[in-house]
Amino acid sequence: MLIVLFSCEIVSLAPDHRVKCWHMWLLLLWQIYDQANRYPYIRRLRNKIVLIQDVIFKGKRSLEWADVEAYLKQFVGEVYTVEKTADLVYIGKDLPDEYTHSNYTMILKGANAKAKANAVQGLPEIIEIATHKAHKDNWKEKHSKDAKYGWYKYMSRFALPVFDSSGEIERYNIFQVVMIVRHAEDGKMYLYDMMDIKKETSNLFQS
Asked: What is the reported pTM?
């Protein structure tokens, strides 16, 4: 069964620039038809997705997280707005190290490790399209200043390309991610890490 979805909002990341636009995508969804709930993926796929056009961090055995850390440093000092809540999320000096050396990062393997590493290419957009904001008080003494007013979680989504034998993109794998944001003593909210990366069962197919 072939389902054609129009105007599925995608945040497209070109190699040299980023631009928001509306695309028409062909989504090949096998064995999802259910008489009690027709086309269950359509509503979910209408949400925004950050489309990343390349896989720049890769390795057959392990990723070079030092390269990811260096890449992240370009964002330090920047601030991005979560469109749904108008929250300002700052990128602090602690992010590159925490993102690449957290306990969560250290246990990642395979596709999820590659997904987290390459998600940094779309960091601004992943923040901007985030949803499902939730707050949690801080109970750890070591974060009494940098997360004095607690922690926030947001959900976001991005897609990474899968290449065929000729090097052309044949589809995109979609991932969900939880953004961890700390509310610091200075009253600002800072991105702390991205966790709980999960690959979705649906794919975006190149049109």
From this structure: 0.77
Q: Are 23 and 10 in contact (CB under 8 A)?
A: yes
Question: What b/e string do you get for 15-31 counting C-beta neighbours within 10 Å, with b at 16 or more?
Answer: eeebeeeeeebebebee
Structure confidence by residue, pLDDT tens digits, 139-154: 999 999 999 999 999 9
Task: Give per-residue pLDDT as tens, 24-42.
Answer: 343 333 333 333 343 333 3
Q: Are 203 and 171 in contact (CB under 8 A)?
A: yes
Name residue, tokens 């108008």: 86
CA distance readout (Å), 202 to 27, 58, 162, 175: 8, 23, 13, 10
154: tokens are: 């947001």
Query: What pLDDT, on a 0 to 100 scale, did the predictor assign at position 63?
Result: 83
Those residues of the chain that have pLDDT short of 70 are: 1-47, 60-61, 202-207
Helices (H), 73-203: 95-101, 103-107, 110-119, 123-128
Q: How far apart are CA 139 and CA 149, in angstroms?
A: 10
CA-nearest of 133, 197, 195, 187 to 159 is: 197
